[in-house]
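[audit] Reproducing an earlier prediction to check determinism. Same input, same settings, fresh worker. If the tokens differ from the archived copy the diff job will pick it up downstream; this log only records the rerun itself.
[audit] input (135 residues):
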Amino acid sequence: MMTSPDSASANYEDKCSNGSNLDQFNRDRFLKLMLADQKSKLSQLKVALLNEIKQSGDEPRGEGVHIGEWNQTFHDRSGCGTNTNTYSAFVVTITGGNANHTVVKYLVTIDDDDNAGKRTLKIRDIRPINLRSDN
């Protein structure tokens, strides 16, 4: 259940799941619900990047904004029922036709925690990244 545009929670019967409550299917579902909510920071970021592409005069390639693969960037387990985890992904803009331009713009991190059967997911941070500028 979404508890705000940027967070969700779920209750599981298994209070000592050894991490099995933290499934990718429901994490992906949470991310899709965030992207569908116009008040979510992730949704607003995607809209802002699409507007940036439009204002530049360039054409988006495909969706124009792509959220990469989520990688676990933090994990701490205490006993069988407490897991704290962070997942991170790059947000990339892709523009152009044959000569395309792909730029990593942001790093997004989400927390996915389980405390004795109560799972919480939330956006931790969205940070701009400037890996390279060819302007």
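[audit] rerun output stored. Observation attached for the diff report: The first strand starts at residue 2 and ends at 4.
[audit] end
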